[in-house]
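Page 37, top half.
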Amino acid sequence: MGDLTRFTTAAEQDKLAGIKLDDGDVGHFMDLVGKGLVAAAQRHEAAVQDDMALSAEVIVRLQRPVKGDDGQIEILTGTETVVGRLTARKVYKDPADTIQA
């Protein structure tokens, strides 16, 4: 892994405008999130209705080791919870099929 990074000083922090994630990494990760949403929605096939309003919650946690001022390794963690609603509908093998409620 090489040398661990340290925390920025206050003077260094004042020079920063933000952080930029690699676009390719973000795109790949968003594909994984999309697959996770589809996999989680599969459980809702058990419900009778064809059209569904689903509540969604995605928790993102980014971590990395950082050397503290005392030389000890700390795990720096950033966490964000995103909530929203998704609409979904059943897809039938034969489009003429339906399930009566």
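Page 37, bottom half:
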Amino acid sequence: MSKIAAIDAAIRLQLAEDGKSIGYSDPLTGGEGYTGATDVEEFLLGIAKRLRLDTPPLRFPWMELDAATIIISKLHVVHAKIAERTAVEKSDD
């Protein structure tokens, strides 16, 4: 799976697990979205965990994004910020 497709899948799966209904043009707080920075941190952590399970594993340093700042960002902007920070995890081989 491509990096962008893996990120998209991770975001959609995490939103579904969290029971959130947010469109790509909605802010994270929009609709049935997240209510605080702590919720957004858990959302980002969940995405990072999902991406590590991809093949090849992807590394997303979720702590580089300030949850208090991105909570008002639209989902497609958050997607782009995740993509620019995500890289293929180096193998120890």
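Margin note: Residues 41 and 67 are 6 Å apart (CA to CA).
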